[in-house]
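Batch manifest, entry 17 of 40.
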Amino acid sequence: MKRIYLVIILGAILHSCDYFTIKNDTRQPVARVNDTYLYKEDLKSIFANDMSPQDSAIIANNFINNWIKQHLLLSKAQINLKNSTEKFEELVKSYREDLFINSYKEAVVKQYLDTEITNDNIDEFYDKNKQNFKLNEELVKLKYIKIGKNILNKNELIKLFRSTKKDDLDSLITKEIYLKSYHLNDSIWIKFSDVLAKTQILKEVDKKQLLKKGKFIQKEDSLSLYLVTIKDVLDRNDISPKSYITPTIKQMILHQRKLLLLRNIEETLIDDASKKQQFEIY
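Output type: structure tokens
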């Protein structure tokens, strides 16, 4: 479809102050498709306050072009799908009703849903549903650093990294300037796939050899030295640790509460309406 150019119309939008009347309507039209008009005031919401005249012209031109295309398609559809009009009206009615109902439900949930989740809530949910939380990939706890291959204090950094003393770890952290990248919190579980994505060189290591508790790996390329210590490993189909699955548990608890809240509201609504004889079943 050829682009519809509306330079003259845009000039009227941005510069003209003359008004003319169409069917006793003093609004200024900027485009028309059959008997449907687009007016200048309809474009007010599409412009930002700090927009230049050039940008305004481009935005207006695109909006008008899209408006014309949409209404031409709508007109063509109404002519060629005349037999489907009743079906479409039903769909529109159904959509309108669903929109009102869902908006009401969202407002109710926002106002009444209890969003406070305690550790006891998480523990109880985890214990009841533990078998549903099997891993579909490996998790690891690890330490990792990447340093320059030829830096002067390389041996010191390697010694600090391999140490299990907290003071040495703290000392290593203070030397962050020498670390090209690192992960030193080996108390949290991480997807093994994420580790490989960020440390491509580990893909050269056999997976079975890599995924061992206490495993230390030292690899290098032309520029860098990579050090990895695997503290712990969970295999595929192992039960996911609670600390790892906690965000998901919170979402599931909230979802259950939401469903229960809506169910109670619906039951209360029907009960009240029944008492007031607001509906009958024949």
